[in-house]
Amino acid sequence: MEKKVHTTCPYCGVGCGVIATVTRKGAVSVKGDPEHPSNYGWLCSKGSALAETIDLDGRILHPEIDGRQASWDDALDLVADKFAAAIAEHGPGSVAFYVSGQLLTEDYYVANKLMKGFFGSANIDTNSRLCMSSSVAGHRRAFGADTVPGVYEDLELADLVILAGSNLAWCHPVLYQRLAAAKENRPGMKVVVIDPRRTMTADIADLHLAIRPDTDVALFAGLFSHLVSNDAVDQNYVAANTSGFAEAFAVAGCVSFGEVLERTGLPSMQLREFYRLFTTTEKVVTCYSQGVNQSSSGTDKVNAILNCHLATGRIGRPGTGPFSLTGQPNAMGGREVGGLANMLAAHMAIENAEDRDRVQRFWGSPAIAERPGLKAVDLFRAVADGRVKALWIMATNPVVSMPDADAVEAAIRACPFVVVSDILRQTDTARHAHVLLPSLGWGEKSGTVTNSERRISRQRAFLDPPGEAQADWWQLAEVARRMGFGRAFAYEGPADIFSEHAALSAFENAGTRDFDIGAYGGLTINAYNEIAPFQWPQPAGQVNSETRFFADGGFYHTDRKARFVAVKPRETDRTRPDYPFTLNTGRVRDQWHTMTRTGKSARLSSHIAEPFAELHPRDAMEIGVGNAELVEIRSQQGRAIVRALITERQARGSIFMPIHWNDQFAARARINTVVPATTDEFSGQPASKNVAISVRRFEVK
Ligand code: SF4
Fold first, then answer.
1. Residues in domain 4Fe-4S Mo/W bis-MGD-type (predicted)?
2. Nearest CA residue ID for atom 4, ligand 1
3. CA-based angle 587:592:597, to the nearest 5?
4. What pLDDT was estimated at residue 258?
5. Which of 11, 117, 531, 549 has the fewest C-beta atoms lying within 10 Å of its C-beta?
6. What is the pLDDT of residues 336-380, one digit of tens each?
């Protein structure tokens, strides 16, 4: 009989509902779920091609030790022994997990619990560090907690939508379709795109501000100053719900219109028009994504945006608000369970002794981490210098995706003990594993994910696990059991884990901070299987409550007020005579991350078949390179060789390259070998949008 399963797309943070159909003969097809409130039936090219990416080609079907097939018992015993030995000999700081926004919330929860509550270390970080950690840091500074106030419907209700550092058309395609449809139906609605590149998203923009890289702080500090000078501040909202206005204005007020023009490189008419639109439009939503987050000033950029929304009280009401868009399907779920080195669980803080005590009692754990652990870049530095002796990497490919990728690969190769849990054998990272563990892929695993608008949806299995593949949470729980922590990890399935996670969010009012799904604690397996998509918070006893954050203040600092943060523009020009160009990295429409799954679809690969460097025609002329000829990109860090793509969408002096391809595709195709491991001081997020490089024509000898 044909089987139909309601599940969720595993790619971007939009979190679209998918109906997967499996025929009697085992053929799989997918279509958008018309009842899912994130996509109402729409799917983008990646989501539509999901059925083309689930074959078993290249799958890891059995555990392996040093490249040889092993039993689960032998592999898990070895992992438990090596982690226990490292902790006994060198302390809890000598072990680390590097996980992923591809993990389900249940996997994330168990990994975080084992590392922080039972190993006593907070050395668990995630590839979501590369995606949205500057937004997390900015939210915590302004709101007192990592709370995203926006919902997707706000984009349709706003009269002005600002997309800052977001190529929504390619990176959140279904949300873009919703916005484009809303704009079509409401002729007065305006869209402003802020991006150094003229991306496909700019095609629906009424105003495209092609600012110089990393000058967003100047742009929004200037806007803050403009709001004050034009009497556009909501004095009542500011007085009742915020603090720090005067201090923030003392800094932003010094940023003159002329300085903004000089720093951003914008024509004065465009800047005036942007400030006029923001000042005179009541319903404004500002979405921001990697162009804001992936910067050495990413957290300041976020706060510069939040300052403008707080000053005008445009937050927490339909059609208004700042809105951070997450890149990955479960970046938000990882935040909820504390799957980052500087978070605890249920949005509680490691630095807070009461929170630590509450979580430790709830878990019944022997040793809670007392301080934040190593964030992604520092984690791999600690692997490189020998401080980390045992490393477990789950569902991610840091040898391609981390900045300074050659150094990351060398660190992993030199690490005494590396475990990789993944679905594919031949990733650049899996090749270096001492122990390789076969995980479940999309369609085989079961659990929950949370999208950008705080909506928790089920991923449901509709395929049998191939070979001996097992869920990531099961692998972690089995290692925990072998290390003597079995009672705390005796889960029968993901429903048990989700119920425990929900109960912790409500435990002794832990969730009053901002996150409570206590209504979903103690679920039966049937109830868990039937969960329909819902947004948090859902406090115990209030299932299906609808909560808008911050309409009447209620922020999470102790005085319940939001904080303005004084941010001032910094020097952003990284170029120098030997590296006169700026490199900006990003994504293409039809590939996902390091292409381990989307690369399997011929249809998706036909959109853009190979890596490229996009450059302006006049730059190409000066370098002496023609379209599709090879160029060599060099930075202080490394080099890459790809084809030139000459286009006026690219600003002069800057080069765009996609992040997806690796050296298995072509020699020197890994762009992250060129990107240095520079990070934002508050979030630890790497900066990959403004790298000084040289470009020259490459001759094949
Ligand atoms: Fe999947 Fe994102 Fe496309 Fe939706 S928009 S189908 S979540 S990749």
1. 2-58
2. 16
3. 155
4. 97
5. 531
6. 888 899 999 998 989 999 999 999 999 999 999 999 999 999 999
Contacts (Cβ under 8 Å, ≥6 apart) of 599: 591, 605, 660
Atom of ligand 1 nearest to the CA of 175: 5
Question: pLDDT tens across 179-202, in order?
Answer: 999 999 998 999 999 999 999 999
Q: Where are the domains of the chain?
A: 3-53, 64-126+343-454+466-490, 133-325, 581-697
In a mutational test of the pocket of ligand 1, which residue from 43, 201, 451 has the highest number of ligand atoms less than 8 Å from its CB? Answer: 43
Closest CA to 315 of 656, 553, 603: 553
Rg (C-alpha) for the chain, rounded Å, is 24
**Tokens standing for residue 699:** 């001759």
For domain 64-126+343-454+466-490, give its CATH number from 3.30.429.10, 3.40.50.720, 3.40.440.10, 3.40.50.740: 3.40.50.740
**What's the whole-model pTM score?**
0.96
Rounded-to-integer distance, Cα 316 and Cα 150, Å? 7
CA of 47 to the centre of ligand 1 (A): 5
List, for the chain, all residue ranges whose pLDDT scores fall below the cut of 70.
511-514, 543-547, 667
| Cβ atoms of 498 and 520 closer than 8 Å | yes
Report residue 350 as tokens. Answer: 């490691």
For 206-231, give the DSSP string: SEEE-PPTT-HHHHHHHHHHHHHHTT
Q: Pick 3-53's CATH classification: 3.30.9.10, 3.40.50.10320, 1.10.569.10, 2.20.25.90.
A: 2.20.25.90
Q: Is 43 in the pocket of ligand 1 (CB under 6 A)?
A: yes
Rounded Cα distance between 167 and 465, Å, is 35
Residues facing 535 on adjacent strands: 455
* pLDDT value of residue 518: 86
**CB-based contact 689:295 (threshold 8 Å):** yes
DSSP alpha helix (H) spans, 482-608: 494-506, 525-530, 602-605
Question: Which of 12, 200, 457 has the most ligand 1 atoms within 8 A of CB, as the residue to mutate?
Answer: 12
* Binding site membership of 170 for ligand 1 (Cβ less than 6 Å): no
Scanning 573-673, the segments in alpha helix (DSSP H) are: 602-605, 617-623
| Residue 474: both structure tokens together | 């099961």
Note if the bond before 537 is cis, omega within 30 degrees: yes
If you ran DSSP here, which 8-state letter would residue 523 be given? Answer: -
